[in-house]
Amino acid sequence: MRIHDIQQRLAEAGAKPQHTGRIIRAWVQGRSLDHGTRHQPSESFLPLSVREALPQLSADLQNLAQLRSEHPGADGSARLLVGLADGQMVESVLLPRDGLCVSSQVGCAVGCVFCMTGKSGLLRQVGSAEIVAQVALARRFRPVKKVVFMGMGEPAHNLDNVLEAIDLLGTDGNIGHKNLVFSTVGDLRAFERLPQQRVKPALALSLHTSRADLRAELLPKAPRITPDELVELGETYARQTGYPIQYQWTLLAGINDSQEEMDGILRLLKGKYAVMNLIPYNSLEDDEYQRPAGERIVQMVRYLHSRGVLTKVRNSAGQDVEGGCGQLRARAVELVNT
Ligand code: SF4
Residues of the signal sequence (predicted)? Predict the structure, then answer.
């Protein structure tokens, strides 16, 4: 379901644009749909035909994203396994400091070699209403002031739905534009469309290596944009919006943690409006990839930082419960199938 399907349904029930706006605002803010105010109770402003349609609409919107299970982590985050109306499942993650990570696709076609979601391929797109429904669901637990599109899926491969959701979240959803973070491996369509939006989100770019040949191995189905080209595109967007680009670098021991790679980061990012996020890989048992040792990670951060690249270590939220992106859903599917 897309957001305009909800608008159309309300119009068919007799809602005027101001009624529709108010009802959709209530939904995205996690309130009941017929929520009025002390001075203007709902009964006084909604036509009867609309009021009669609300209980079924409310049930259908709740059905868009239902909580299947919650997995709290020690770091204050919590992974939510979210069931969609057709029985598919995605993950949302409640992040510390009122953040939420949402999924934009069921599965993903990019196939990053270190990612569990990539192993299933793309199963289906997540509709714009289903993306917003993940926020409405999370707001039943706690406030949400930041939404990052870093859950399952590549947002640039579901661009219309993601941009619609961003537009609603950045207007009626009360989320500051720089607190909406579009995360991508890099896709020219995203770089063309994001600057044209009235709500321009911040941008996170998955870089992972400074070498074009290694990037093609690690992200086999990502668009063939070289690291140099990606950083140039990112820098243009950062200057247009005034927000730094968050570069993502999943740290894999023996693969992209060498001195040569650190110098590659310096070559690419020194002087750029950028933050480098090093994300130590979250290994499962018998995994072919491992995270570098803690001492090595500290050395890397010091090296980059002292040479002018703002660098942070980010642990994948909730990693003590089920690991990185898509692992919770994979485990749930495993359980369902056994
Ligand atoms: Fe897709 Fe992101 Fe996983 Fe890569 S890391 S396969 S882009 S979900």
Answer: none
